[in-house]
Structures are given as C-alpha cells and as structure tokens.
Write a structure and sequence with these properties.
Elements (H helix, E strand, L loop, with lengths): L4 E4 L4 H4 L15 E4 L24 H4 L4 H8 L4 H5 L2 H9 L2 H21 L13 H16 L7 E2 L16 H12 L18 H11 L3 E5 L2 H12 L4 E5 L5 E2 L3 E2 H7 L3 E5 L7 H7 L4 E7 L15 H10 L4 E6 L17 H6 L4 E5 L10 E5 L1 H9 L2 H4 L4 H13 L3 H7 L1 H6 L3 H19 L3 E10 L11 E10 L3 H9 L5 E2 L1 E3 L2 E5 L8 H11 L3 H6 L1
C-alpha cells in the first residue's frame, strides 16, 4: 500500500493550476483524495503527488486546467524522504541541523512544482530533472546560497577609489588589525584605566584629532550626516542659519542639506545665487535671530565659469564680528595637501581651523581613508554643547569603528607612512607611469585566460576619487580594455556573478579594468572571472 491518503473538502488541485481560493458561498465539493506524504498541499508537507480523482462538482473545463502531462510530472517528483537520503543531502545533514536541511529540500521541491505549474507546454520542462540525487544537489546549492553572507567582498576594477556602493575607503592593515583586536576581546571603551572609573569613549581619539587638526576639542559620531544634524540641533535650534544658495546640495541617498537643517530645528536663510554669492549677501541676512553662518562643501558637483564665493577666512571674520560661529560641513575630511599626489588641492582640516572655522564636520570613510564616522572638531565650548545634547547618544560611535579610526589617525602622525599605508591615499597617488607595468601584466593574464573569445588592449583613461570627494577631478590612469565576442552587457552581468564578484566599467562595448583600484593579488581572480564570463552560450548549457 502507498502512503496514507488525506481527504480535503476543497479542490486544491485548482491551486496548482493557479485558480483563486473559493469566495464565501462556494459550494461544498465532494472530498478529493490526496497522497498527503507526496503532495502536501495542506501547507504542512511539500506536496509532490496529485490524485487522479476529482470531486463530482468539478466540470470538465476545470479539470482541464491541469493538463495530463502536468499531473504526470507532479506524480514523478520523489518524496521528501527520498531526497533526504541522497548523498548531497546526507552530507548537508552532517554539517547542519535537520530542520535547516529539510527547509532547503522543501524549498527546492516547491520550486519544481511551481515550474511544472507555470509551464505552458511539456517541452518547456525538457531540462528539468526529477532524479532524487539531482534534486538533492539543488537543495545543497540552495542552502549554500542561503547561508552565504549577503555582505561580501568584491573586486573594484572601476577606478572609482571611494565608491559608495562598494563601501568607500578600504582600510589600512593597521586599522583592520585594531578592529579585530578590539572585536575579539573585552576592551576599555568607557573605562578609565588610570582611575578605574567610567570614562568617555571620545577620549581614545580626541587628543589625536586635536593634534592633527589644531582644534581645541573633537568628537566622533556614526557618520557625517549625523554630525551635521547634531551640530545644528545643539547650536541652532529655533535660530536662523545663513547659507549660500549654491551650497544647498543633495548627496547620495537623497541627503539634502536644507532638510537636515529643518530636522535640526534651524531656520534656513538662503543668500546669493546658484553661481555667485558675495560676502555682502551674508552680511545683509544677519539679524537678531541669526544663530550661525554655515558653509557646505559642494561634495559631488562643481560650478565652473562665472562664479564667486567668499573664502572661509572672510566668512569667519564676518561671523566673529557679529558674535556668530562659522560652521563648516567639509565632507571629504582631507588631512594632507593633495597637491603632493599630483591632484587638485582643496583645503585640509588644519587649514580650515587656521582660517577661523569654529566647528567643522567631515567623514571618516572618504579622503581620510578610515571607517565610516562623522567628525565634529573645533572650539571647545561648541563641541561640549554637541557632546551634551540628547541626540549625541543616539548617534554615538561604536567600539569597532572607534578602533579603526584611532589606528587610521595614528598613521597621520607620520604623513609619509599615511601616504604609503592608507589605501585611499596610495591609490590616489599612483601615477599613470607607475600603473603601466601592472596593466601590462594584467592584460597578459586576461589574454591568456580568454583566448580568442575577446580582444585585450592596454589603453589610457582617467579615474575618479568618487564618494562625494574631489568633484570634477579626473586622474590619469591606465586601463585594460576587453572587447568580448559575446554581448558586453552579458559579460558584465556574469562578472557580477563571479566569486568574488568583479565590478567593472562598460564603455563603447568594452569592459574596462582600471588598475588604480586593483591589488596585484586580484589579477588571477579577474582573469579567471573573465575567462568564465566570455564563454559562449553552448558552454553554459553543457555545464
């Protein structure tokens, strides 16, 4: 005898054909017999069987909704226990709980039933195997995908050094080691080892920041948006803040300066025009309820041509003559003169402090080259107001980020070491001449891997800093251009499916690999991924 049969009052075979559940008043149907172990349409077992018998109320038209070949295919699906006994699944059971493995098998059988139900013709199922071992292998693959981390390492071949979608700044080895050390054991996050009493987590980095920038005081929160929000909430709530129209920027994730000002309780006072704002525009806007002047870095765009804007020193002098603080959101957090790297310079944090800025906010994971964090540096009483504000706890920095930031800042005590060991600075400083030998090496590896399936050339191009830093600055670089025989969009998609994924640029039907953001140890991985991505369609079918 077969497994026990289950009697269900509603013709659930209709669900297999995609019919809706009955509405109120649906006539009672004669019992329909199902193999409960093989079908499981009651929601408890993943069903795989289908009764030959239909209730007396089923019309011929309803019965035809499930084709005979569909019923035959469903009956051929092996039961759950048969799949559980296959070698691939038994191997999973040795490493994972039965509940987890059973969920994988059930999910795969559900996918198979859905494929059968959704097929218009039997020929569409020609590539579908119902062998228990094959289904077991599918279940094993399903579980591997489910257990694999969603946040993964990727290879950045785009040449965008601070690519926001890829996590911005890669960390220096010293920062990685510091994070691992703090993460794996207890630490003195808020313990003053000298007194044995509770201390401040800001103490671990404040002296370093002040030494590097020349500021009187400093604190760090979880990102720069939080730093700006905290600064405005603590210093400008219910007060007017004067800002140039040309600096009302929107950056990634729809972060808009005017909206943040509103959330911080400040009242926006726009002055000047998009391309020109004069010092007199600021001065005319200052009134009895003015709380501060705010200057914002343009971040991800640049206005060129007929432009004008007062300097930071001029704004600071104006603000101080009226007893107001000059607040500066500088975003990128550059500490070293980028002219040393052959890149268009912008004001560094020490230069902003020296120019008279009273409070500066900037990011940790942009040109600073550290973990994500929001710095607030400047006058002691203004930092103290931010630190004592209730919002400070909601946006406070965690121990791992703090460890990485401290290690990164320590590298800046020796600028030459910072330039060499902080990946962001090292990448930005690579000249076209220095990149050319590496490009030739990568091109040779790729050419050997793809064979006649693609043409490979070394060409010149430009890189970008990215991440809302150095807008409009193009950095000369060397590229490996791969022109595949397959459609380039298909090759690019396959590269994203590689392990690890390879993220590239596509331009003029070519895959472009920028050497600026590649490590030499990644060359074999890139070549291997391209070899697979450039294979012809029939090779995929054979696999």
């Amino acid at each position: 005898m077969g497994p026990p049969l289950l009697s269900l009052p509603y013709p659930y075979w209709r669900l297999l054909a995609g019919s809706p559940r009955p509405r109120a008043g649906w006539p009672a149907a004669a019992p329909v017999l199902y193999n409960s172990d093989r079908l499981g349409l009651d929601g408890r077992q993943p069903g795989v069987g289908l009764s030959e018998s239909f209730g007396q109320h089923h019309s011929d038209q309803e019965a035809a909704a499930v084709q005979e070949w569909q019923r035959r295919w469903v009956r051929a699906i092996p039961p759950v226990n048969a799949v559980l006994e296959t070698p691939p699944v038994r191997e999973m059971l040795a490493r994972h709980s039965r509940q987890l493995v059973l969920a994988a098998v059930q999910a795969v059988l559900a996918e198979v039933r859905e494929a059968i139900r959704g097929s218009a013709r039997e020929e569409d199922l020609a590539g579908l195997s119902l062998a228990a071992r094959d289904l077991g292998e599918r279940a094993a693959a399903w579980l591997r995908r489910r257990l694999a981390p969603r946040l993964r390492r990727v290879i950045n071949a785009t040449g965008v050094v601070l690519h926001t979608n890829m996590g911005r700044a890669p960390l220096a080895p010293a920062a990685v080691a510091a994070i691992a050390e703090v993460a794996s054991r207890y630490n003195n996050l808020e313990l003053d080892l000298a007194t044995g009493e509770r201390g401040s987590r800001q103490a671990h980095v404040e002296d370093l920041i002040c030494q590097l920038t020349g500021a009187e005081a400093a604190m760090v929160v979880n990102n720069n948006a939080a730093a700006v929000l905290l600064m405005l909430s603590a210093l400008c709530r219910d007060r007017e803040v004067v800002i140039s129209r040309g600096e009302l920027v929107e950056i990634g994730g729809s972060f808009r300066v005017p909206e943040v000002m509103v959330q911080g309780g400040a009242r926006l006072v726009e002055v000047g025009t998009t391309n020109k704002t004069h010092l007199r525009d600021y001065e005319r806007a200052i009134g009895p309820n003015t709380g501060a002047i705010l200057k914002v870095h343009s971040s991800n765009f640049k206005i060129i041509g007929f432009t004008a804007a007062p300097t930071v020193a001029e704004l600071a002098d104006l603000a101080h003559r009226h007893g107001l603080p000059l607040l500066v959101d500088w975003g990128s957090g550059v500490m070293i003169d980028l002219a040393r790297l052959g890149i268009e310079r912008e004001m560094t944090m020490p230069e902003l402090i020296a120019a008279g800025a009273d409070l500066i906010t900037f990011s940790g994971d942009k040109l600073l080259g550290g973990p994500q964090g929001g710095f607030i540096v400047g006058r002691r009483e203004l930092v103290a107001a931010c630190r004592s504000h209730p919002l400070a706890r909601a946006v406070r920095i965690d121990k791992l980020t703090l460890a990485g930031i401290e290690a990164t800042l320590r590298l800046y005590l020796d600028p030459e070491r910072a330039l060499a060991e902080i990946p962001t600075l090292a990448m930005l400083g690579r000249t076209r001449e220095a990149l050319r030998p590496a490009a030739q090496e990568l091109a040779e590896r790729v050419a050997a891997a793809v064979g006649d399936r693609a043409e490979v050339q070394v060409v010149e191009g430009t890189s970008q800093a990215g991440g809302g830093a150095l807008p409009g600055v193009e950095i000369p670089t060397v590229l490996v251009a791969v022109t595949p025989r397959l459609p380039v969009h298909r090759v690019e998609a396959r590269l994203r499916e590689a392990d690890p994924p390879v993220i590239v640029r596509v331009q003029q039907d070519r895959i472009l690999l920028d050497l600026r953001t590649l490590w030499p140890e990644e060359f074999p991985l890139v070549a291997g991924a391209l070899a697979q991505a450039c294979k012809e369609e029939e090779s995929d079918d054979a696999g």
